[in-house]
Amino acid sequence: MRDLHWWVKANWGHDLNPDQLRCMETICTIRAAHNLPLARLGLSRKPAIEVHPFYIAVTLFSVDLATFDGSELTRLVRSAHANRVRVGIHPALLMCKLRNDESITFEVGPGDDLDRWVARDWWPQAALRIQANHRQEHGNQFERHPGMEALA
Question: How far apart are CA 18 and CA 136, in angstroms?
């Protein structure tokens, strides 16, 4: 876990607290942090990772989550219970365009006008947004998460 904290700080510029680190560790059961197919957003090509006090979210290109062959989904669920992290998997839409032989990508929100993008020669790219919220053992429905014993 210490290596993951160092890697995230060195490569993404985020200093994670222990709860955020649990969230990132859970997400990284899909693939190691350096192998996550993160979308790169805007002209700066910044990785699509959001670090908030209560959650971490990443937007990924080309991810296949399965329960058997590959088993990324199984590993994600087991890790979520082991780390007491609520994981949400949501569809995301990215708009892409080539400019000077470089790809530029922006994440499109639910209220965005897609005609505005299409009219300017952007093409859509499907993606997945994975959000991990740290929780605790006890509390109300929005504060707790069942541990591994719930899977038995």
Answer: 12
